[in-house]
Amino acid sequence: MTRRFLFGASEIAALKSKSASSTVPNPSCVEIVSALVWKCAMEASRSNSGFIKTSVWCQAVNMREILAKPLADKYLLGSLVGLSMTKTQLDIDNQDLLTLVALLRKGMEEFKENFGNGISGEEAFEIFKEYGNLLRRDGIEIYSRSSMCRLPFYSADFRWGKPLWVFISSVDIKNAIKFMDTRDGDGMEVILTLKEEDLAKIENNKELLAYSQPVQQKMRTTAKL
């Protein structure tokens, strides 16, 4: 099932203050919301399965923004996307927001260090091969996040005026997560597609509800993976 959660500007500011640490003194909005959603998803999975699973947070990376030598034309067509994967330790009780934010920051920094000078076809193949292998393993939960934040969707005007609301369609894949800016650019919309039993737990997670507002509309997916 798919569910939407809205994070307002004041809630994001409060979450950022709570998630800052000496390791990551100024976490980004995407990092702090990622850490909170990941934490709540792990708790829901453990509650429903009855045991702790290794958890992997996979995030699509816009390679154009991390290359040491930018492309000659930043408006060239075509996707240039990498995949950063961050794993947690098995002791979920110690996975607080500060720890998860630090893990996410470290994973991205290592990705930039490894591929900031470019990525070969062979390296890209190995990354996605590892991702595919993880998906097929038992005892592992993979969460795949794509962030559409800072993309100018709300500036699009096809002579009908600028859009009131932009929504990226959900996909029939469990643990798929999308981030979108709100129309004013100050908040964030999180679109979660999870197993129904996990989503039921997350919808009642007090920590998540302290910083976000669930949207009442529910959309049922047609496939179960």
Automatic annotation (TrEMBL):
<comment type="similarity">
    <text>Belongs to the plant acyltransferase family.</text>
</comment>
<dbReference type="GO" id="GO:0016746">
    <property type="term" value="F:acyltransferase activity"/>
</dbReference>
<keyword id="KW-0012">Acyltransferase</keyword>
<dbReference type="InterPro" id="IPR023213">
    <property type="entry name" value="CAT-like_dom_sf"/>
</dbReference>
<protein>
    <submittedName>
        <fullName>BAHD acyltransferase</fullName>
    </submittedName>
</protein>
<keyword id="KW-0808">Transferase</keyword>
<dbReference type="Pfam" id="PF02458">
    <property type="entry name" value="Transferase"/>
</dbReference>
